[in-house]
Amino acid sequence: MMSVVNRLLLIAALLLTACGTHKPDPAPEETTAAKPAQSDDRRVLAAFGDSLTAGYGAEPGKSYPDFLQQEIDRKGYRWRVANLGVSGDTSTDGLARVGEAIALRPGIVILELGGNDGLRGIPIERMRDNLDRTIAEFQTAGAKVVLAAMTLPPNYGPEYISGFETAYRDLARKYRLTMIPFLLKGVGGHAELMQRDGLHPTAEGNRRVAANVMRVVEPLLR
């Protein structure tokens, strides 16, 4: 017969085995569903351009599109400004990335390109052709294009400057565009509103550029 000691050892072994094979109860299912992220249902205004749009050299949040968004919000318009400025872009570079902007389905596009073409002395015909194709693509996608025109320093010569400025006016007529005659009006040439390079506005300069843009764009926001 099994001794009392042996019986106790057997019982202890059975208990240890049972404890080793016991599976923990499954965790209760999460009953609170995660809240979905709120979607932004505002229409998109795409600021599409080069360093003047990107806000080169200014503090983060101090580009002209940033100030434009503040003014749009202040006046209660339900539009979201997408800053699609890339420093250094020429009209060729801009044309190459039109698809990225169209993917946002913008209702309005502020097209600010060509300044770097002029500063590099790129043939005006090439710049005009690139802007022409860019405008056509945006309009085909259903966007209203606002053309922001630029000019050049006097040392580029009257003939080149005249042809450069005329290219913007010709495209505005061809496509019946709303045009900003000079994006940096009241800012360019004012040392207190421009950075040391004389090409890019300071934060306060960008605020004034946004005011220039708002005056032209506001009728389209309504």
What are its keywords?
9 helices; Rossmann fold; alpha/beta; disordered N terminus; 222 residues
How would you describe what is shown here?
Helix 3 packs across helix 9 and helix 7 runs parallel beside helix 8. The chain has a 5-stranded parallel beta sheet with strand order 2-1-3-4-5, sandwiched between helices. It is globular, with a radius of gyration of 31 Å. It has one domain: 3-Layer(aba) Sandwich (Rossmann fold). The protein has 222 residues and is of the alpha/beta class. The N terminus is likely disordered.
Question: How would the blueprint of this fold be written?
Answer:
Elements: H1 4-21, E1 43-49, H2 51-54, H3 64-74, E2 79-85, H4 91-96, H5 98-102, E3 108-112, H6 115-119, H7 124-140, E4 144-148, H8 158-175, E5 178-180, H9 203-221
Parallel strand pairs: 1-2, 1-3, 3-4, 4-5
Helix pairs in contact: 3-9, 7-8
Alpha carbon gap, first and last residue = 100 Å
Uncertain stretches of 5 or more adjacent residues: 1-36
What is the CATH homology-level superfamily?
SGNH hydrolase
Gyration radius from CA atoms, angstroms: 31 Å
The total tally of domains equals 1
How many strands, what sense, and barrel or not for the largest sheet? Answer: 5 strands, parallel
State the helical fraction: 40-55%
| CATH fold description | Rossmann fold
Number of strands: 5
**Cα shape:** globular
Residue fraction in strands: 5-15%
Run of helices and strands: HEHHEHHEHHEHEH
* The level-1 CATH class: Alpha Beta
Protein structure class: alpha/beta
Q: Count every helix, treating DSSP H or I runs of 4 or more residues as helices.
A: 9
Assigned CATH architecture: 3-Layer(aba) Sandwich
The average pLDDT is 87
Strand order of the largest sheet: 2-1-3-4-5
